Amino acid sequence: MLGTSLLGRLRRRDPGDAILRRAARLTLVASVVFYGCRYGAGSSTLATYGLFGTIAAGSFAQLPGPAPQRARLLVLSLPVVWALIAAGSLLAWSTWAAAGGMLVVGFVVAFAGVGNPRLVGLASAFQLFYILASFPPYQPDTLPERLGGVTLAVVLLAAAEVFLWPDPVPVSYRQRLAEAADGVAAFLDAAAEKLTDPHAAAGDPDGRRERAHDVVAAIELNRSPPAWAPTAAGAQDRALRICAAALREVLGEADRLAADAPPEPIPDLAAARLLRSCADTTRAVGRSLSPGAPAVTPADLDVAVGRAEAAYPVGDGQVRDAPDVPRLCRDATALALADQVRVFVVGSRVATGARLGGDDASSALFEYARRSPWTLYWWQFRSHLAPRSVHLHSSLRLAVALAIARVAAGVLQLTHGFWVLLATLTVLRTSAADTRTALRPAVLGTIIGAVVSGGVMVVVDDPIVYAVVLPVTLLLAFGVGRLLGPVWQQALFTVLLTVVFAQLSPEGWRLTEARLVDVLLGAVIGVFAGVAIWPRGAGHDLRHNATRYLAASADAVEQTVQSMLGDAPPPARALARVRRRMILIDSSYCQYHSERHDPHRQQVNWDAVLSAGHHVVPGAESLLRRNPPGCLAGWPGAAALLRDSAARLRSAYDALADEVAHGRTSDRAPVSTSCVDQLDRIRPLLGEADHQSVRHLVEVDRWLAGLADSLARIPLPAADESIGRSRRR
C-alpha cells in the first residue's frame, strides 16, 4: 500500500511522465559513458568528464523546444564547452588565476542571457564545465581526454533526446497566438453584427466575447513556459511580442465598438464593413502562423481602410449641419482597430521570416526587422548595461560569489573543491529571501545524504557494488528526487556522488565528510552573496523601472497632445524613450515571477500596470498617422479641453507611479469611454470649427479616454489570491 501510494503521488507530480522519461534518458547515457570510459577504456579522466558532461547537459541545462531542437542546441554548444574546459584546464595552475577566470566566465555566461533568455538554460551547464576543469590537478596534457569524454556525453545525450522516449511537444506560443487570433476574429464578426443590428443575437455574442478574452489572456508571457516564451532579442521573438500586444489592443477596441452600438439598426455602416474585413484578416493571419503556411499581406486590409476613410464624414469644410459625433466615434475606433490589425499582419510576417516590403514600413515598431541579429543583440546588451538592470545585478552577484568560492576552495586545499562552487550555484538566488529558502533543503538534504552514504561506505568497501547500483542512484537522483522535492533531490544527489567517487578514487567514509564540509562552505558563501549584494532581488528594480516607465509614458502622452495642438514637434524622442524603458521593465518583470514573495504583503498587479504603459506607444503612432501634427492648431476650445484631459491623465500616471514605488495599488473610479459621454464633452465646441477639425478632436480625445480607462482598470489583488500565488511559486 505504501508503494502504491508513493507511485500515485509521483504520477500526480509528473503528468505525462516527462521528468521520469528525462531521468531515464540521462541514466542510460550516463551509465553507458561511465562504464565504457571507466571500465572499457580504463580512464578515470574520460569517465569523470563523460559522467559530469552528461549530468551538466542533461540535468542542469534547461533547453527549450521539441526534441530535435534541443539536440541541435546541445551539439551547437560543443565549441563553447570545449573553450570553457580548455580555459579551466589552463588556469588550474593557480588558485587566483582560476578565480579570476571564474569571475569572467561567471559574469559573461550569466549576462549572455540578456540577448537571448533561452541561453539561461545553458548557463549553469556552461559554468559547471569551467568549474570542473579549473580545479587541480593541473594536467593540461589530459585536455584531449577531457574534451573527448564531454563530447561523447553530449553527442550521445543529443541522440537520446531524439530517439529515446521523446517528450511530447507542448503547445507553442505561435499556436496560442493563432488560437487567440481566431477567437478575436469571431468576436469582431459578432461586434460587426451588433453595430448593424443591436437586437441581433449573432451566435451568442457574449460567449464569443468571453472566449476572445480567455484566449487573449492565454498569450501573456507569464502563462507560457519560460523555455517557450518569445523573450529573446531576435527579430522573430520581438515580432511575436508585438503581435500579442496588437491583439490585446484589437480586443480592447472591439469592446468599445460593441459598447457603442447604435440604438437603431444602420444596415450599411462603414465601421461594420471595416470590422468584418479586420475579422477576415485576423483569422487569415492566425492561420499563417502555422509552419509552412503562406504569409498574409496587408493589401486587402489597406483597401478596406481606404474605403472606410473615404466614407468618414468630413463635411465641406464649413459648419452647416452639426457633425454626427457618435458616428465619428465609431469610425475612429474602427480605424484605430484596423491599424492594430495591420500591426498584427506585419508582425506575423516578421515572425515567420518573410521579408518586409515597402508597403510594410508603416510603423517604427518594425524598424528593427531591417537590422542584423547582431545589431539587435548589441542593442539589448547596451540597454542592460545600466545601474538598474536586474540582469546586470544577477550576473555580477553570481560571478563574485563563484569567484569567492573558488578562492576559498583553493586556499583551504579542499580535495573536492568543486563541490563548494556547486553548492554556491545551487543556493544562490536573485534575492535574499529566495537564497534563504534554498538554503534549508540544500543543507538538510546534504546531511541526510552524507549520513546514509557514510553508513553504507562503512559497511560496503567493494567498488563492484557501487558500479552495480550506479544506474539506480542516477534514476533516483534525477527522477524520484526531483518529484519528491528539494530535500530528497539534494540527499539523493549526495548519495550519487558518493557512488561515483567510490569507483574513481576510493576514500571510504571520509568522502561523505568532505561532501558535507564543502556543501556547508558553499552554502555560507551563497547566503553571504545573496544577502550582501543587491539582496532585494527583482522586486525593487521592477518598482523603480516601472516608475520611470510610467513617467516616460506620461511624457509621451503630453508631447503627443502638444504636437496635435501645434505647440511642439512630433514626439519621436519621447516614444523612443518609452521603448528603451520597456526593455528594462520587461526583464525585471520576468525575473520577478521566478522569485518568492511575502504572502502577507499586498502585491501589485503588474500585468495591469505594464499593460497601461503598453497602450501608449502603438496608440500614439496610430494617432499620429491619421492626425498630423498641428491639426488642431488655432482652436482654443479644443486646446483647453485636451490640455485638461492630458493634465488629468498625467496626474493619474504620477499617482500610479507613486503607488508602484511603494509596492501597492489602490482602487480607482471607472472611466467611461462611450460615445455618449464624449458627445457631452465636445458638444459645446461644435460651433467653433469645421467637420475635419471635429474629426481630429474626436480621435485625440478618444485616445486619451482609452488611456484613462486602462489606468482605471488596474485592480487590487485580493489577499487570498496573493497568498495562493506565492504558495504556488
UniProtKB/TrEMBL annotation:
InterPro entries with a match to the protein in the record: Memb_transporter_dom
Compartmental location: Cell membrane
A Pfam cross-reference name: FUSC_2
Record's keyword terms, sorted: Cell membrane, Membrane, Transmembrane, Transmembrane helix
Transmembrane domains' residue ranges: 42-61, 73-90, 96-114, 398-422, 442-459, 464-481, 516-534
Membrane topology, as annotated: Multi-pass membrane protein
Domain Integral membrane bound transporter: 407-528
Family designation: Belongs to the YccS/YhfK family.
PANTHER family: MULTIDRUG RESISTANCE PROTEIN MDTO (PTHR30509:SF9), P-HYDROXYBENZOIC ACID EFFLUX PUMP SUBUNIT-RELATED (PTHR30509)
Protein name according to UniProt: Inner membrane protein YccS
